[in-house]
Design brief:
Distance between the termini: 57 Å
Strand content: 15-25%
Number of helices: 4
Order of helices and strands: EEHEEHHH
Strand order of the largest sheet: 1-2-4-3
Oligomer: single chain
C-alpha cells in the first residue's frame, strides 16, 4: 500500500487472487469514507482510495478495505461452490411436486411433527 501526499491510498490486487467483483463490493462498502477509482491493468487491479473530508484515518480504513476485499472474494468463491445446491433447493421449493428421492424423508419428518 502506498500513501500519496494528498492522503490517497494506492493499492494493487493480484487479479488471479482477487476478482473485480469482490473489489467493487468492498468499494461500495467504503464509499462513505473514500472516493474509489478502480483500474484493471492485466494481472493487477489498482485501487485508489481518495479520502473524503469526513475520513479521519485514511490509512487505517485502507487496511480495513483490504480485509473487506478478502471477505468479499471468499463469499464469491463459496457462492460459486454451492450454486448447484442452491439451484436444486430453489427448484424444489417452487416445484409443484416433490423430488422422488426427497419425498419419503419429507413425509417421515412431517409424521414426527
Amino acid at each position: 500500500m502506498l500513501t500519496v501526499d494528498d492522503g490517497t491510498q494506492v493499492m494493487s490486487f493480484n487479479a488471479a487472487v482477487y476478482g473485480i467483483k469482490a473489489i467493487k463490493k468492498a468499494a461500495c462498502t467504503f464509499g462513505c469514507h473514500f472516493y474509489v477509482l478502480i483500474e484493471p491493468h492485466g494481472c493487477v487491479t489498482e485501487v485508489r482510495l481518495i479520502p473524503k473530508a469526513c475520513c479521519k484515518s485514511a490509512a487505517a480504513f485502507a487496511g480495513e478495505f483490504c480485509n473487506e476485499v478478502l471477505d468479499e472474494e471468499l463469499r464469491e468463491r463459496v457462492s460459486a461452490e454451492i450454486a448447484g445446491i442452491r439451484k436444486l433447493l430453489v427448484a424444489q421449493v417452487f416445484s409443484k411436486t416433490f423430488c422422488v428421492d426427497c419425498a419419503p424423508a419429507i413425509r417421515n419428518q412431517a409424521a414426527l411433527n
